[in-house]
Amino acid sequence: MTTSTELIQDQIQFFADNGFIVLKNALTPSETIKLQEWAQEVHDLPRTSEVPWMPYEEVNASGKRVLCRTENFANYHPGFDNLLLGPRILHILEQLAGDPMLLFKEKINYKLSGSGGFAPHIDSTAYTHIKNVKHLTILLAVDAATMTNGGLEVVPGSHKTEVPINAGDNCIEPAWVKQANWMPCELQAGELLVFGSYLAHRSGANRSREDRKAVYATYNCAREGDLHEDYYRDRAKEWPATHMRRAGEDYAAGAIRYGFGSPMLSIACGKQLEV
User: Fold this and answer.
1) pTM for this prediction
2) Max Cα distance, the chain (Å)
3) I need a surface site. Which of 135, 150, 158, 267 has the fewest CB within 10 A?
4) If DSSP codes are grouped into helix, strand and coil, which group holds residue 79?
5) 22: left (phi over 0), alpha (psi -120 to 50) or beta
6) DSSP classification of residue 169
């Protein structure tokens, strides 16, 4: 099986109209197996005070602390470095953005069995404080994503509207969420979803018995500059990895900027949050 990075005009127009697009067969079967191996390698990275990658925990449905995600790992993992900064993905994004792209940030959400969901939100709320630019994000399905195991839902065309954000928690206003037309984006392993930073999306808890991982990488236009280091410098200060938190330190500003609507907030209250 081969993969293609050339998009047709209908695909580019669909993305412009809807704010997202799913690309089947983004990876070959052998590449998907590699992706699964790499994601587990990142999951298993050591957590000490010296490491630059950023693991975050959550409290799952059983009340146990488990790994929720890891950020800032591409520069330290050759496989992900080649994949996320390689010509295949960058060419797809350039066709959708109309500009060359640079990696802004990257994460793996683990969504282990029993892990929590993410409240309805738009991503720009967590990005534009670094620089007020638009971003494109890819979601590479490491494992199949369904509505049972906490797959993503989107509101097509919401990137063209003024989605109301609640200042108290940085998530979408409940009244808007209730009336919106939410569409499941179920993916098979190796499939790719691309969406913009103003698209409304959410995902439920993983109520299945199987773990599900997903790689997210966010990009900005190259003409805006390389912002990767700026982003993670601010994040490390305001919302450090769970094992790097200091007793008595106030991380409220980081929680509202980087943790909003996510299972990461469950660490502070000691129980899984409903979204």
Assistant:
1) 0.95
2) 54
3) 267
4) helix
5) beta
6) T
